[in-house]
Specification:
about 650 residues; Creatine Kinase, Chain A, domain 2; CBS-domain; 3 domains; elongated
Amino acid sequence: MVTQAHKRVEAQLEGETKRQFMRHLFRDLRALEQMLVDKRFETGARRIGAEQEIFLLDANYRPAPSALEILGRVEDTHFTTELGMFNLEMNADPQLLAGDGFRLMEAQLDVLVAKARMVAQSLGGDIILSGILPTLQKDDLGLENMVPSPRYKTLNRVMTELRGGDYEFNIKGIDELMMKHDSVMVEACNASFQVHLQVSPDEFANFYNVAQALAGPVLSVACNSPLLFGKRLWMETRIALFQQAVDTRVARRQLREMSPRVSFGDHWVERSVLDIYREDVVRFRPLVGTDLEEDPLAELEAGRIPTLKALRLHNGTIYRWNRACYGTMDGVPHLRIENRVLPSGPSVLDEVANGAFWVGCMLGLAAGNEDIRKRMEYENAQTNFFSAAREGVTAHFVWLDGEEIQAQKLVLEKLLPLAEEGLKAGGVNEEDVKRYLGVVDQRVRSIRTGARWQLYSLAKMKNDGTMGERLKALTAATVARQRTGKPIAEWELARMDEAGESRKNYMTVDQYMSTDIISVQADDSMDLVANLMSWERIRYVPVEDKEHNLIGLVSYRQVLRLLNAGKLGAGAGATVPVSEVMKKEVLTIGPKTPTLEAIKILRKHRIGCLPAVQDGRLVGIVTEENFMDIASALLEERLA
């Protein structure tokens, strides 16, 4: 979601360079204001556009850092890189809304997706449309997987410096994610389907406010990102993850109100698009700069249209969920509202249907130029948005005139009819109106969004294989269903057998190690260890310090020796601390250790488990039972 509009980017703006960039920014704003006064903008035209983000997969349905290679082979200007080497973006051509605009958008996206899939398959991989890739893991987010662009490197350095340390993430759903990361690369976990709607300058404020009011209801029917690192979080986890991934605020300043760079906003737009641009300049300092030779005011005086390069670059580092966009087509400037709420997937048809639903609601609700601010408190629009992200189509909203209503009922009874009116008024072909809104209607009635399909599929497979295998099966099934072109409401749930033959693809221990670890500390008692082993039916208990560094291991055999010596249980005397019994010299492996190498270590040293450690901290544990299972599967494959 980080744009690549400028190829040459300076380092962090400081001193005179910063002041010069701000000077260009102010001149761009003055030029924009003059263009609005002089009515230079295109009016009356209603166009739509879309940006499709995807994940690249290897043969094991894991992220493949092959963006540059695919880009080189595809040779199509509609494709561009994103932040991660395992991401790509495809930009559809603008289409006139009236007539078959959405049908043409869908057809082009189908062609672009098919082209990307064909090239990826020629490299032994595939692609997937998904808000968050289920098989993505934290160690995929290293800087080695960042696209080697000066812009991205500079943004990462500047944002990290502003934060003054690691990025912290805390997202709670059914499960809870608490983690730290050292770069902005977590943003690469997100993939969206961004829809654009061209509006006239005099209607911009009203349309933008309508977009804010609709953000929650539209998101509720489109959720497709319930999982991150195997944890079940929000129905649309992208919303929380993206905000935290590029948040430069520092926790120790929590008493001071500061706006995050990813924001829903905190008030309605009062007058024009200038309200948004000016506020962003006031609240957010530029992070990066570029070569700026154009004088926008001189361009206007010469009868030409300026590019407003500084303003667009600054706008590209501020992430409103509904973004104001300035652009030109055939030398004529225009304004667009970019909907960044929608996730990638589940299918191209679902995505275009989401876009049509949003545009239809926008046109229907903005009809008559009624001021939405008189019918809705801004705080309710905010609350609705985050409720939708957490709960999806079962969320409860406070809608117009203070009406409390469930998302499903709101969409079926009010918004779908409104969207139909809006699309028909916009001149969209009647058969396309029925086609796309029918997809949304079927999905909402069945409560089968992409997010719920993923969660239902995981629940169905909960007693089969490891979490890694289930996530792989889920990803494989998603890819297979996307190839059919059917909407999510018609997909059958994922099955374990879609993960491929046995476990030959699980060649590293992170695919099957247990991450739900029960541990103790050195000053705990061995009575606690004995009870843990009995209650939880485990044979090994790792010992950690307060920073979760692995410092020892206690085995079932050590507990048995203490029991036989009468040093454990009610009849024992003084309690025995873990520190006196634990094995301090523990063989460990990394999560990316090849399976065969781990099996060799296990057999050579005649041990029953191997803790997986990353940066000194315990991240997982694999036991002899895991290895026996994997070894048997590998042997069967070799014999076959």
